[in-house]
């Protein structure tokens, strides 16, 4: 007979070996399932994960809502359980996923956070290009903003993934989905120089020549996500600024900049590696002001009104 722990272990193995999820993501799934197990035990709702009934799922939503959690946190927990039970149904360990189509608290729409092109230029100008760490940081900023990479994709990128002739990078994306991203010419040149010079110096510090990851820390080992965040914070500090920045903000800024310049939403979706177009559409809210200005300058009726205003001001 299959136990709860057997089911969890098989699900976690699927997340790790098949879907290639990060350790942090997998840990989050584990925590969400453990919390649900504790709920079942404390509320005496069922003998275990494999014995729940339809009403238990909705009762769990009510329970989470009563804990004053943010709607985004509730949605994530329910989404984790829905993925878990989807897997169980697929593997014929459970008959139905009761966590689908539940009545959940609505998530408030939030605009994504971006930084301006001028701020990005300022950050890149702060990098000391005569220093191996400064040059590496310059390339990191270039990849995050120039290619729209997730921080995990940046850290996992290997030398063999880069095609300097085509100016493209083969990215192993979220959920084991591969895609090709494009480099602007100056970024390709900078990356090539970093790999052939400063990266070699960094690698020497590790005492090993086996590491093929592009971005290394000062000890010559693979750069981590925490390390990237600290690098970005240092870049802001070196500029004498105090604004908040994260790797994902640079990804947001990449997408917004392309949409502001008129790139088709589907092309942006492809470059970001989004499975659904609706995920990419969050950036259209940020680009709205630019779209509005373009409309005012382009639409014949709007142009007429603006011309009349200009004439009045001249008089």
Brief summary of the model shown:
With 315 residues, the protein is mainly alpha-helical.
Please give the largest β-sheet.
Answer: 3 strands, antiparallel
The general outline is: globular
Rg from Cα: 24 Å
The span between the termini is 88 Å
Instruction: Kindly state the number of beta strands.
Output: 3
Helix content: 55-70%
* Helix and strand element order: HHHHHHHEEEHHHHHHHHH
Largest sheet: spatial strand order: 1-2-3
Kindly state the mean pLDDT as a whole number? 87
β-strand percent reads under 5%
CATH superfamily of the largest domain: Intergrase catalytic core
CATH class division of the largest domain: Mainly Alpha
CATH topology of the largest domain: hpI Integrase, Chain A
Any low-confidence stretches, pLDDT <50, length ≥5? none
Which CATH-level-2 architecture of the largest domain? Orthogonal Bundle
Number of helical elements: 16
Structural class: mainly alpha
Domains, number: 2
* Oligomeric state of this protein: single chain
Describe the 3D structure:
With 315 residues, the chain is mainly alpha-helical. The chain folds into two domains: 4-90, DNA polymerase, domain 1 (Orthogonal Bundle); 117-289, hpI Integrase, Chain A. The protein contains 16 helices and three strands. It has helices at 4-18, 23-43, 54-65, 71-90, 117-125, 132-147, 151-156, 185-196, 198-204, 225-238, 247-260, 265-272, 277-280, 282-286, 288-298, 300-314; strands at 162-163, 168-172, 178-182. It has a three-stranded antiparallel beta sheet. Helix 1 (4-18) packs antiparallel against helix 2 (23-43). It starts with a helix and ends with a helix.
């Amino acid at each position: 007979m299959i136990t709860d722990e057997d089911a969890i272990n098989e699900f976690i193995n699927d997340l790790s070996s098949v879907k290639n999820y990060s350790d942090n993501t997998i840990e989050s799934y584990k925590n969400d399932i453990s919390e649900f197990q504790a709920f079942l035990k404390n509320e005496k709702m069922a003998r275990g994960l494999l014995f729940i009934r339809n009403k238990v799922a909705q009762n769990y939503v009510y329970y989470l809502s009563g804990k004053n959690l943010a709607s985004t946190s509730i949605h994530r927990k329910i989404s984790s359980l829905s993925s878990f039970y989807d897997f169980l149904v697929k593997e014929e360990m459970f008959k139905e996923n009761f966590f689908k189509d539940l009545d959940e608290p609505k998530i408030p729409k939030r605009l994504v956070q971006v930084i301006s092109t001028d701020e990005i230029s300022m950050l890149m100008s702060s990098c000391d290009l005569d220093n191996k760490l400064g040059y590496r940081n310059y390339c990191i900023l270039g990849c995050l903003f120039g290619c729209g990479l997730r921080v995990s994709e940046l850290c996992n990128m290997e030398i063999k993934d880069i095609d300097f002739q085509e100016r493209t990078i083969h990215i192993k994306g979220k959920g084991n989905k591969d895609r090709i991203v494009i480099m602007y010419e100056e970024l390709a040149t900078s990356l090539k120089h970093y790999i052939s010079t400063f990266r070699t110096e960094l690698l020497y510090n590790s005492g090993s020549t086996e590491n093929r990851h592009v971005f290394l820390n000062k000890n010559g080992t693979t750069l981590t996500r925490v390390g990237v965040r600290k690098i970005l914070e240092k870049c802001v500090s070196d500029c004498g600024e105090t604004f908040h920045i994260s790797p994902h903000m640079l990804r947001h800024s990449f997408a917004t900049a392309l949409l502001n310049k008129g790139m088709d939403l589907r092309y942006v979706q492809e470059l970001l590696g989004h499975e659904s177009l609706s995920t990419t559409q969050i950036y259209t809210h940020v680009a709205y002001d630019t779209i509005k200005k373009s409309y005012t300058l382009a639409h014949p009726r709007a142009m007429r009104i603006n011309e009349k205003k200009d004439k009045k001001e001249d008089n």
